[in-house]
């Protein structure tokens, strides 16, 4: 079989490849605090809707739709503050924001997991729902340029890798394995930026 024919590179694999490349680029740009992370994240989310639908990971499929919404939200917040076009600074997560996550993520996980378990063919509904809940929390913090978003991504990416290996999404598993050190890089670099901001204001 010709390596480059459509018979080999079928539509599903091509979709995963495009999602892989754009996903990798958008996270790298997020580490660098580059605004172009958001349009690339939208492209990646679009392609991964198809990938996760085929893999019966319905919560992850819905997550990509929510990512699209949160990316538009983050795109605006990174460009504007108080209605004025200014670069949003890196800040630490407030206690009330942690409180929201601690309450909503478990409730979301149970509710969505139960729904998927009872109404769909989802293979691992509660794992799917749990990683989706944490990912939404991480994306919400990232949209607001909160330093600790990277710690949530680090934790959930570690869980995602074996899930995608189990679902035989090997390219996606590789992508999330790469995301693990990138999340640490993001935390380290954003923490450095935060310290520099404080030094300027001191």
From TrEMBL:
Keywords: Cell membrane, Membrane, Transmembrane, Transmembrane helix, Transport. It is found in: Cell membrane. It is a multi-pass membrane protein. Its main location: membrane. The keyword Methyltransferase does not apply. Pfam families: NMN_transporter (PF04973). InterPro entries: NMN_transpt_PnuC. It comes from the Bacteria. The chain crosses the membrane at residues 12-30, 36-52, 57-76, 96-116, 147-163, 169-187. Belongs to the nicotinamide ribonucleoside (NR) uptake permease (TC 4.B.1) family. Required for nicotinamide riboside transport across the inner membrane. This is Nicotinamide riboside transporter PnuC. The lineage of its organism: Bacteria, Pseudomonadati, Bacteroidota, Cytophagia, Cytophagales.
